Structure formats: structure tokens, C-alpha cells
Amino acid sequence: MNTRDQISSAAAFAAATPAASPSTWIRSLGGRIATWIDTCADYYAAAAMYEQLSSALSDAELMRRGLSRATLARDVRAVCDPATASKAQARP
């Protein structure tokens, strides 16, 4: 698909969708802002947990808990990120 095809398909989509009312637009914006705030809070909690674990625990203590310093950030993010947690639960 070249640039002209992308522009024309975007124009066709824009022409096919009716213009949203201001209240719908504001409601949509409010929902996106709330989602962004929740995501920021999740990542802040993950960063705080990572900082606490990485500075307070030795490599031996991390290994005893089933963690490694190399994958600690990914493991903490997986615990604090609801989207990642739901994907992990969906796997058999």
C-alpha cells in the first residue's frame, strides 16, 4: 500500500463516519485521560517495587525468591501491569 492509497482510505473512512458531537468527543477524551492516569500509576508502582527489591535484596535472596536481577524489571512490570497479568492468566 502506497501513501496515496493510505490517504484515500483514510479520507473514505472519515467521510463514512459521522461527526461526533462535542459531548461525545469530551467523554472520549476523558476516558483516554483516565486510562493514561491508570497506566502511569501502574508503572509508578512497578518502578517503586523494582527500586525496593533491587536495592534491598542481594542476588542470593532474589534467587531464593525465584527472581534474577537480569529479569527483575520485566517480572515486576508483569505483576503491576493489569494487561500483562490478564495475558499471563489466559495462557494454558
Would you kindly provide a written description of the structure presented here, covering whatever features stand out?
The protein is mostly helical. It has helices spanning 3-16, 22-56, 59-64, 72-80, 82-90. The protein is built from 5 helices and no strands. The protein has a domain at 34-92. The radius of gyration is 21 Å and the shape is rod-shaped.
Sheet-strand content, in percent, reads under 5%
Q: Compute the number of helices.
A: 5
Oligomer: single chain
Shape: rod-shaped
Key traits:
92 residues, mainly alpha
Please summarize what this structure is.
This protein has 92 residues and is mainly alpha-helical. The protein contains 5 helices and no strands.
What topology does this entry show?
Blueprint: H1 3-16, H2 22-56, H3 59-64, H4 72-80, H5 82-90
Helix pairs in contact: 2-4, 4-5
